[in-house]
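Exam revision sheet. Question 4 asks you to relate a sequence to its structure. Input first:
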Amino acid sequence: MTRISRAFEDRKALVTYITAGDPDLETTAFLMRLLDECGVDILEVGIPFSDPLADGPVIQRAGQRALQGGTTLKRILDMLKSLKGELKAPLVLMGYMNNIIAYGAEAFARDAAAAGVEGVIVPDLPFHQCDEVAGALRSQGVEFILMVTPNSTDERIKAIADRASGFLYCVSLLGVTGNEEKGSAPLENYIGRLRGFTDLPLAVGFGVSTPERARAAARAADGVIVGSALINRLEPCGADRECLRASATEFIGAFRAAVDSAG
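Answer key, structure tokens:
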């Protein structure tokens, strides 16, 4: 059993997403240590990209701040490597295919593994074209995490589940991250349907913006993923570490309690 799988073993998992380099990589490293101290089960780190098609305005702004500050994939991996061995929670990188192509799939897999990355999500890589990247990652012991949506057909879900490892990222709505306007799928029915195709842990993301939504998602699934709401809460702090510590501690405390109460 991998560390990612074990994160779902004893309790409902709380997964947090932050954008690397927002507002700078030193602050990102500080935040990762802080979130780990606060009891986050999996730390998901985003690679900033100029055209992030799955991300809403909050994460888009974070990505732009990171890019303007000179954040690159190489610098992100160097920062993660500097944290290797310090964090209890496993690390997952989320990024778009252009960054991986520019870096080189084999080199990316090798350097990600060396930096302590244990899972990778590539939201714009179609599952039927993922074999090269997935193979490169798995040859280095890195999980390849795939996403499924509420309108996926049974055939598509089966094909995705057959290729995925670590956990299945269950998008809870049709839209981009942070968007609640289009509403959530009926989670119990959606998650129950997915369980018919996989034994992987199921984590719900997109639109998990409040502790109440996190509790509802955790009741149905094995974990929840919180990104835009966390970044939105931390955005006014900039690089002010006192502000970041107070804001993150309060935010994670509320979400941790909500997720645990669903267990």
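Marking note for examiners. The beta strands are 13-19, 42-46, 91-94, 117-121, 143-148, 168-171, 202-205, 223-226.
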